[in-house]
Amino acid sequence: MPFLREFGHYLPSRVVTSEEAGSWVGATAEWVMNVSGIRERRFAAEDETVADLAAKAGRDCLDKAGYDANRLGLIVVASGSPERQAPGPASVTALKLGAAGVPAIDLPLASAGSLFGLALAARLAPSMGHILVIGAEKMSRLVAREPRERGVAVLFGDGAGACLVSPSGGKAEVVDVELGSDGTWADDLCLEQNAPIKMNGRTVILQASRKIPGAIRSVLDRAGVAAASISAFLLHQANQNLLDKVAAALGVESGRFFSNIARYGNTSSASLLIAASEWSQEHGFAPGAHAVFAAFGAGFHWGALLARGCPAK
Amino acid sequence: MDRRSKLIEILQKVTKKPVAPAAEESLFDSGLLDSFALPDLVSALEQEFGISIPDADLNPRKFDSLARIEEYLDARS
Question: What are the CA-CA distances from residue A18 to residues A13, A21, A101, A272 (Å)?
Fold first, then answer.
């Protein structure tokens, strides 16, 4: 299987505290913290687009990897918050990266988009070469839509994360992937045209608390790897309470689940790769050590990816 | 212990509160159960009644009151 060669991310500079976000819906910062674990989030500037965020994260990733954007075989951009229905942000992202001409596709999957992008890239890299996977979201545009709902508007933030998937070496090798989709619940978490985000939190949490551990167990069982031996769990940062619940379901201490949700909120498809990028910078893949990526989101779409650290060069 | 008493005991354990709702009372609307306690309730039901609740049945409405939970358990038996 291919390799995760490098990660990158970009976060806008404007910090929006939970005190400010709570004031939109008559909630206190303490309430926001209790229901989500979110202390603050970042909001992009008014004139910043999803493609701008995506290109900045992609540039960070490519610069760290020392890889020229023109040599990419494919660019994949996951986003549930693009400014227009079509075209999505992928082609403009490629242009901003200086990679006009490189094929670029959109994955409008929202929260599970980056994971599906990584899975797709892992399959395609042997034939297409290096693939840049980006998750980018400008959720601030969506949470501003009225009526703002108390349990939704305070959760989201803006940002972008990226991963360079390589057919020939990197920080970690992709061992296995498990993906699933079920349209039964499509109306329970969705974004209609010009409407606010609609979320039935009970259904989302109930399904996510089963499907995320289930997908993780699938890849671990197939690889014969115990959850207790995983060095890091890198998950879509939906809600701290959900991360804790998944950890408990797997019998793993919460501390093994990397979390930055207190600082950035839920950045939908971007969150998985922002988390992976930060974790990679702070800790990194030890040779032979396993890490799990997992996500769940609107659709519902969900899945897990198992990666193993490559020997140091 | 009859099934209703067992359900109340499970609910008290999950919510960590000495609750005893009426059969038809909504556990969500009354604030007894929140989104994050619901998965724990489902897991406890599986454990206590020796059943496996498939993902397709994980609809919050099925677990919104003691009566609905009993209805679901009846359908499963």
Answer: 16, 5, 42, 21
Classify the complex by whether its ipTM is higher than 0.85, answering yes or no. yes
How far is Cα A91 from Cα A100, in angstroms, rounded to an integer?
A: 8
In 3D space, the residue among A240, A238, A214, A239 whose CA is nearest the CA of residue A292 turns out to be A214
pLDDT tens per residue across span A112-130:
999 999 999 999 999 999 9
Measure in Å the smallest separation between the Cα of B28 and chain A Cα atoms: 9
| Residue B39 touches partner A, C-beta closer than 8 Å | yes
d(CA A205, CA A193): 24
Residue that is written with structure tokens 């020796």 in the block: B50
Give yes or no for a contact between A49 and A105, defined as CB atoms under 8 angstroms apart. no
Using an 8 Å Cβ cutoff, are A111 and A139 in contact?
Answer: no
Residues in chain A closer than 8 A to B59 (CB atoms): 203
| Of B12, B5, B10, B23, the residue nearest B51 (C-alpha) | B10
List the single residue in A202, A204, A209 with the smallest CB-CB distance to B28: A202
B39 contact residues in A (CB cutoff 8 A): 205-206, 209-210, 245
H helices present in chain A, as ranges: 18-24, 29-36, 50-65, 90-96, 113-128, 140-143, 150-153, 201-223, 240-250, 261-264, 269-282
Per-residue pLDDT tens digits for A157-197? 999 999 999 999 999 999 999 999 999 999 999 999 889 99
**B39 to A201: CB separation less than 8 angstroms, yes or no:** no
pLDDT in tens, B58-76: 999 999 999 999 999 999 8
* Distance from C-alpha of A30 to C-alpha of A28, rounded to nearest angstrom: 5
Sign of CA dihedral A276, A280, A282, A286: positive
Distance, CA of A208 to CA of A182 (rounded, Å): 12
